[in-house]
Fold each of these.
Amino acid sequence: MEQYDIIIIGTGAGGGTLLHKLKDSGKKILVLERGAFLPREKENWDSIEVFQKERYHTKEVWKTNGNSDLHPGTSYWVGGNTKVYGGALFRLRERDFERVQHSEGVSLEWPVKYDAYEPYYTEAEKLYDVHGKMGLDPTEPRRSAEYNYPAVSHEPRIQQLHDDLVKEGHHPFYIPLSIRLNEADKVHSPCIRCNTCDGFPCLVDAKGDADLNCVRPSLPNNNVTLLTEAKVTRLVTNSTGSEIDYVEVMHKNELLKCKADVVVVACGAINSAALLLKSFNSKHPKGLANKSDQVGRNFMKHLNVAMLGISTKPNPSVFQKTLAVNDFYWGDKDFKFPMGHVQLLGKSNKDQLASEAPFFTPGIVLDDMATHSIDWWLTGEDLAEPGNRVTMDGETLHLEYKENNMTGFNRLVEKWKHVLGKIDSGGSIIPRGVYLRKDIPISGVAHQVGTLRFGTDPITSVLDINCKSHEIDNLYVVDGSFFPSSGAVNPSLTIMANALRVGDHLTQRLK
């Protein structure tokens, strides 16, 4: 059984970033990824394959509320879900790290505050080629530096939308995007500003993801070994239960045992919790690191709505996902509690709309809807609830989830409909914009966080402030599991920044 200094399980926003941080440490690192490299193929940009057939999502089936089947919208590839994400990399607001009163409860205070994360946010933005512009978002947290890359420009229809919002007193700003784009030198720009970015794999490798930005640049190092199609089945402790002794891995139908001084789990908040639960033994009868009975609990995924704004004005935009609004993040004059965040989605086409429309809807209708629509993504904060949790029944994963904190979020949806109606109304065919709303079901787990939260009290948390298990001295977790609260912006950048922070801790530990 070969001995390593570090084993990293998973190559997504957490695991991939940690690998990049440690690659030059000289330590012997084994990286285990259950997926393969996502293939570059024409289907990368095929809406029917990507959205209707879900070509790049896992085919495994979980169980959810009432023991019904759950087909999760998650991906197992080198780079994890970053291979198909929209690349929107937001910082949490400074207040998100504090105790926040919502209309239906409280989001918990973090044991590590924004100031400790700020330099790692800056480092992560540089690592992931984030394009943006500071000083436009009224809720923007303190920044020590401007973005390294300029904001991605708005196309004419979105610029008009921006200007109309400003006239109404709002504060739209550029989405911070992880993308390899050079608008000043389009000939040499990897990104071509196509309409197949948000939710698609990138055929031309122009998306800033954990695979391209972190894993592949680490592989030339002789101290790094990557095993793909290597699913970790169990973590086995020593006889006292105080350390991970070895990791059981099914690698292409062969069972391997791998040892390391430090084991880092980064399987995603759901699968990391599942791995610890199914690794139970006599010293940890409820699952590893679960003396607190908190492993798998407090699952959060955000309150999300995809909304199609249809107006009489055509929208010829190709790369649409460039604008966001946080004016209602903390509420407004009539509602003193948080509501949430608004951002554009990638531009829908008729094949994407067909995946959710009634089967008898004519294609010409869907095409006309797509031609006249602007696509929105609204996010609200769901609160940590012990009953929203991951459990295991043998090898079957159960994910129980009930939405909460909907009052503020529903106000955001109605508020945004009103805002769009004021700036986009009129016309002889459709006298006012029509706003089609689709609530994202439990299968939408792209923003999964919270199942192994960190804290200073072993009774109420699973991990310490360095994301090490309170109970197992060489077990760390660096995906979204550690979040005590979810905020209302995409969690990817915070996961990346935290992995860099933990990487500094591990570098000191392993000296």
Note: Residues 406-423 form the longest helix (18 residues).
Amino acid sequence: MDNIFNKISISLIVLGIVFYFLASTFTALIPSILGALMQIVLLLGRQFPSFHKHFAHVNMLILVLGMGATYGSVISIFAYLFSGTELERPLATVEQFTTFILCLVGMIIGIKSFIDARK
């Protein structure tokens, strides 16, 4: 599970940095902040193995918060694709949509891992 969280968090960090250089706005670094938080929680999980499960749940919470913060971009992308509605901030929308997808994938794999651990 840590391997998946590590890959998702590194992807979020890289995503934020790339879009920061494209858009030159501080808000483009928000995915990087999510990824850095996940890395900190992973580090804490390695330092305190008896609380590993709790830290995995904290990472899932970070993913849920990331999805909640970026779900509006999904609506914007689908509106653009199906009705041709112009995107107000195309770079921001694409970054938010990518963040949503990364968080969603992490959530799905995390839930599957939690279910498998219960069996």
Note: The CA atoms of residues 38 and 59 lie 6 Å apart.
Amino acid sequence: MNPLDSHRDVLSRREFLGRTSLGLGTAALATLLHRDQAFAGGSGGDGILEGVTHLAPRAKRVIYLFQNGGPTHVELFDGKPSLAAMHGKPVPDSFVSGKRFSTMTGKPDGKLMLAPVEPFRRHGQSGATVSAFLPHIAGIADELCFIKSMHTDAVNHAPAISLLLSGAQIPGRPTLGAWLNYGLGSANENLPSFVVMTSVTKNTTCGQIFYDFYWGSGFLPSQHQGVKFRGKGEPVLYLSSPKGISPGIRRGVLDDLARLNQEHYRQFGDPEIMSRIAQYEMAYRMQSSVPELTDFSDESEATLKMYGPDVKEQGTFAYNCLMARRLIERDVRFVQLMHAGWDQHNSITTELYHQCRDTDQPSAALVRDLKQRGLLEDTLVIWGGEFGRTPFIQGKLEDRKRWGRDHHPYAYTIWMAGGGIQSGLTYGGTDELCMNAVTDPVHVHDLQATVLHLLGIDHERLTYRHQGRRFRLTDVHGNVVRPVLS
């Protein structure tokens, strides 16, 4: 083969640009240096240095108990007497005129109002209203801050979740955990800084798909993406060395790979090569840290009992909640638990009971456990989904076993605890039919700005330059919800 032909075959695009002309070479070099600086954690107009905050942080870690599918605020947290009084009557036009709903609802004209299935009571000294569906969460009402005026822009699951976690309905942007990993770095060398676990209520007919972009790093270097722990078998695949491979041999192989990758990086300057090196090293260290993490033998019987009967069953929400506490004890910065099954289009009188039974006790136990161990003060816990459910019925009123509610972006409820959040507070509110957020509305971008603020980050200053402009989690929106801060 002609050596010149062989050389052209392996010539990279970057080498071509660098060698074609001075102008193109300079442009390529500028881009390369800029990306190197961003990867190394330098600000360079792209964000803060790793580990550097803009203001005094109130929280060090986050546990996001994400309830995938849209928990019904009408059934769980936001019952109104006037809604019960409207049961079976058509929804007033003034409440839904001009609003967009999912294609399952289409036009809401003539839809019948549906009263909450279970009664509501006030709980604790704060007097927070929680329904009988969630007795354990009701029992910690004074530890919680309820935001009952959340609202969003999307009417379907994946776009709404993407908007909440990444700031955009279209996938491809970094998620909240990735932004924190990029901005603040890791506090633990032996575990990922951003861990994700998923679970689904057993025998549910309304499970959701867990797309990888829910914990993706988008255009940030891929070392910032979430590491998903599996719900069965080995938590992370391919951590164990093959049979006959000793730790010494494994270490030698990784060292040789690192040298090859470093040479590759020296030639091409692709930051993803450095991410590859970091991920190999993390996998090696996790060979010893993960088995210790997942060994519950050091947990007391009282602690295990507090989380409920499913706590020892890998892949359940209870198991994941206890794992979340163990992870943040080891200084993992962001733990994202995603539990599916909340999409009750025709099952709020049946499957909603199972859903609450699976999640209520472990959620409350996690908050109690963190507080007992002195961890709640600097750990922010968030509970909530991507939107709420319609106050009007989906289905036929006479068929009670198949009562349901459709997606509802205009109002829903979340709660937070610890990490600089004011406890025993109910913030914001909906109208008399739980239809619209009317008192102190909180958009999902406002929630994002508030979470970053609690971790010491100004959401307008944590940016990353991509495709010619600076991006941030909150896009061009978002205000810190200061009344909920302690």
Note: The two ends are 72 Å apart (CA to CA).
